[in-house]
Write a structure and sequence with these properties.
Helix content is about 25%, strand content about 15%. By secondary structure, the chain is of the alpha+beta class. The chain starts with a helix and ends in a 19-residue tail after the last helix.
Length: about 210
Amino acid sequence: MMKRLLMTTAAASLLAISATAYAQDNTGASGQSQQPPVVTPPPATNESGGTTDMNNPASPPAADPAAPAPAAAAAPPPANPPPSDAVISAQSDSEVRADQIIGMTVYNAEGEKVGTVHDILLDKEGKATGVVLSVGGVLGVGAKSVGLTWKEIDVKPDQQQVQISYTKDQLEAAPDFKTTEQINSEMNAQQAAPAAAPPPAPATGGTSTNP
């Protein structure tokens, strides 16, 4: 009887010790329950493999310093000049520029100043066919334009003058030179002018008598 009592007491003691050890494992040495550790999620990655700032999700990924620089646009090839037989590289002694002739003083055979060169006329092939002279007037005001064929003038570039065989009176008696624009303007003005109203019918005289 005594032996069974001792065995029961020993078994109860073992159970109490086991329960105490299990409680200490769950509560810790301080007697408080342990909190699970906080796990920080890893930073999100974009499709290109770079990390994205959670506070600024719209920020672009940092540039890779090892990435090659974009290739520059290729320069266009240099243009080819016109053929050598189409280019004039210098003015020859037998050539006179138009800006040299325009404005030259015109003299007649007696050395009298009769006007100045106002313009040069060219055909469709670029050949000079004539000149337009400014005759008379004061400082160009009230001057008359007279056209002469190219063969009627003698250009002297060394003397900066043009010589003709006509006097000033002959040039002033010549018809005025008109450009194509002036002719068209005059024609349009004539067409736009209203037609003259017909004259009124004359009044019939006499008195009428009633029968």
